[in-house]
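Hi, here's the filled form for the chain we discussed.

Project: internal
Contact: R.S.
Residues: 528
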Amino acid sequence: MRRRLAGVLASLFLVSTLLTGCGGTTTTGSGQAAGAKTVILARGADSISLDPVMIEDGESAKVVANIFDTLVRYKEGSTEVEPSLATEWSTSADGKEWTFKLRKGVKFHDGTPFNAEAVKFNVERQLPPNPTADMPYADFTLGMVDKVVAVDENTVKFVLKNPYAPFLLNLAMSLSAPMGSPTAIKKFGKDFGSNPVGTGPFVFAGWEKDSKITLTANKDYWDGKPKIDKLVFEVVKENSVRANKLLAGEVDIIDGIDPNDVEKLKADTKLNFSTSPGMNINYMGLRTDRKPFNDPKVREAISMAINREEMVKSLYKGNAALANGPLPSILFGYDKDLQPYPFDQAKAKQLLKEAGYDNNLSFELISYPNPRPYNSVGGDSLATAIQGYLKQVGVTVKITSAAWKEHKENVKNGKAEAYLYGWTGDNGDPDNFLYALLHSSQIGNGRLNDAKYNNPQYDELLMKAQQSSDKNERIKDYTAAQEILVKDAPWVFISSSMDMAAASKSITGFKIHPTGVYFLKSLDKATK
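And the returned structure, exactly as it came back:
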């Protein structure tokens, strides 16, 4: 009852829930029946856009994944794929042609039909010469596509430039690959990101910037109507406030949990606490194209000056694993034998002196305040810890913090010599980390190699792995590439976070997916 009363005071949505529990039959101002099932998911930051081709951040993907469908989708709890808008598919013997049979009778939320021409439109939107700098995933997800052909109303064929092993996995991604209504995309143009129209289980209903995004159930969803009526993504920036709102019953689900709140949430018998190994990496990027980090000795010294093991234990309290390279341990291709530079401050000082920095190195580190899926304490706490270790070897670090959206722009625009960042895998393939974030082709034009790392030998290994259909050969190439990367140290590898979320026991059907995206079609909420 305490939780219900708190919810009444906090939210009109819950007022309607309470009324139905008492047999009420009124309607809300939006026309939704009182007692409709509303689920509020609280998170640390707002989405940036709801246009799948314009996003690269997890907070946007969490919402997009429930408005849009993809041709294939990930199975629950894994990155294996299963049919979605495509019911079956086949490949040519040379691996360059992929033909998909499309699900019949599906309509976008605006009533227009989903068909092969819609697929062609969505893909060609991201093929040369159409992509813009605002489409960070276009090249990564579909850059291998030479052309797409609408064979007939319900058959589409992709012709690739070369065999590409992760292609099917890419088509399940929540960024870049979802199918939007061509009619709506043409109508809204750049504003499609604020007026998204897909075929997914939920329909976009409204967005109060930095506050909440509201979706309603798609009653005509081809895979069955969702069990809840309304889904609200609410922004609650402070970790402790978010946890307290869940404890008070003011929200139903939270993520981005601060390690300091874990035991408190686990102890509450009205909550379910979910945790699973995260497919993510938390790191400090160093701009390899400018001083002082264009000198490999300086990058090596910075890596050796930070006691990463001590720092990860202290900050994350057992809820994150120390990283030994760029891949999380749950991903195939992860090499448990990789040896990053060890903690050795005496050696670090020696290297800095050899590089011409004898207690006189200073640089700016840009950071962010809010928690991220790969960094549950937020960037600023991590930045402060790094600053402390580097001070011990005579390095001065100036920390500049900005809200997440601004921070992303700062990183992309090269505001500073170093930056805190992280990554949650999109498709369960090492290519999604090693190529997307560190291949030289991903430098500039809104792409994701923000460290500007460029090593032809590393590039060659990744291209070889991309085009091989032999998994063992791919692992061999990825292992060699990781060894090069660890030696070159464009990043300080920090940790892989456990994925953590907590929900009221009235909620069922909520599960953390390895990609860090929530697929909420099966969500349900018990009402009394």
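Let me know if anything looks off before we file it.
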